[in-house]
Amino acid sequence: MVSRGQSFPPFAVTVDLVVLTIREGALRALLVRRGEEPFEKRWSLPGGFVAPSEDLPAAAQRVLQAKTALDLQTVHLEQIATYGAPKRDPRMRTVSVAYLAFLHDLDDPSPGPRELDAAWVPIGAAERRRLAFDHRAILRDGLTRARAKIEYTTLATRFCPPAFTLRQLRAVYEAVWDRELDAGNFARKVLAIPGFVEETGESVASPRGRPAKTYHAGDAWHVHPPLRAVA
Amino acid sequence: MVSRGQSFPPFAVTVDLVVLTIREGALRALLVRRGEEPFEKRWSLPGGFVAPSEDLPAAAQRVLQAKTALDLQTVHLEQIATYGAPKRDPRMRTVSVAYLAFLHDLDDPSPGPRELDAAWVPIGAAERRRLAFDHRAILRDGLTRARAKIEYTTLATRFCPPAFTLRQLRAVYEAVWDRELDAGNFARKVLAIPGFVEETGESVASPRGRPAKTYHAGDAWHVHPPLRAVA
DNA sequence: TCAATAGTGTCTGTAAGACAGTATTGT
DNA sequence: ACAATACTGTCTTACAGACACTATTGA
Questions:
Q1: Disulfide engineering: B44 pairs with which of A155, A177, B67, B132, CB 3.0-4.6 Å?
Q2: Beta carbons of B55 and B150 less than 8 angstroms apart
Q3: CB A170 within 8 A of CB A186
Q4: For B26-61, what is each residue's pLDDT tens digit?
Q5: What is the pTM of this model?
């Protein structure tokens, strides 16, 4: 171990992102197909090296904006954990700081210059796929975090467009937890939490049936008492 | 950003530890006084550089064993988060992976060769102290994690010696949450969770009053329904 | 017997889930 | 009218917290 002067064991530091969205009623993760070694042609989480004077969240934002046509700073990005097994990257000693992002449905993602493809992959397929590096473990940890976090925070609204119905919000929970919720109980509970959602005053016609009111995300962060992932 | 060949932005990677214990009825953190620049003479969390072929949890264990006369692998170590602001270390670009450890009461800690002192500092004083680097934020995050984690896991038993009374276990929760719990409700709840604690069959005399049974930690991990930090 | 601590019983309020019932629309 | 969807009322059960009560010891 070196601890003095300019000499220290040099590490490469990367960020890798678990980017989740709801599309066609299914929870999906953003995956990219690698165009270079190592793991060429293998699917992986989007990621990249951290620049010498770049903060870690800034690196995560940069990677995210390169793949998606994101307008805003309002996207929620949180750190999952850091992965640094000595042989996780065959090229060099690397630690990867993993981030989790929640996005509402967007256009198709665009692959970067060194990538063959980019896609929103349904979560079951993504988890089963052989991913590059230790990305399968990172994806698993990110999903676990997401499933836990929407229980006691209002983050589920981040999966929704700016205006949404309670049906859409409930669909988020149902997709993330892979479990059906009682529509009535859900509406009562969400509306009882101050600042979870706020009426827009508008309604949208359902395919058939009574039109649903639309809501904006409110400014509350904590949901107490929490919604529950298991019955 | 460099992403090909041997050339990449070099980072130093360290581990820093939030090591907590209960001593004299108070929650305390292990702090060390730095004997070299930067932040010479300032108190800090124990930490150190990660060696070139060392896994991150192994580095954390090594740092922990250097300070405390720990016998075992059974200590619980979990990652808190990673801190990598560009100027967090004035010497070089450094990212620090922070770990959280729960220990039962041990001997006084021993300072390392480049440290002036080491001590179990009561948590209130530790939080108020001006610590080196961004260690105050790391300590805060570690405490938040600890307070949340003992709600829904059996980790509080890690603060207890191998055999303990319910009074001792309750004292752990009271110290960590800084809140008194109803003794009766606590006993009923803990005993109702299968595998939380197991009777040793022995008792210990109280200073005055009925002797308390002693227990070992059981093999359960989750506490459901959770104990609650707030009333 | 008294004081102190350990542990149990019982009541009450809150909240979750099941599910029936009402409201509002398009066809 | 009917079907479909949105939402509300009501009942049951579970559990947390308050607190009174019993149990067991040393002095």
A1: B132
A2: no
A3: yes
A4: 999 999 999 999 999 999 999 999 999 999 999 999
A5: 0.94
Q: Do A11 and B6 touch (CB under 8 A)?
A: no
Contact A39, A189 (CB under 8 A): no
Q: Which of A182, A143, A2 is nearest to B49 (CA)?
A: A2
Both structure tokens of B7: 């050339």
Q: Is A46 helix (H, G, I), strand (E, B) or coil?
A: coil
Q: Which residues of A touch B51 (CB under 8 A)?
A: 1, 9
Interface of A with B in 28-87 (CB under 8 A): 36, 48-56, 79, 81-82, 84-86
Non-local (6+) Cβ contacts of B227 within 8 A are: B150, B151, B152, B173, B186, B189
In chain B, residues with a C-beta closer than 8 Å to the C-beta of A13 are 9, 11, 13, 84, 95
**CA B11/CA B95 separation, integer angstroms:** 7
Secondary structure letter of residue B157 according to DSSP: G
Residues of chain A with pLDDT under 50: 1-5
- Strand D: list positions under 7 Å from protein Cβ: 3-9, 15-21, 23-27
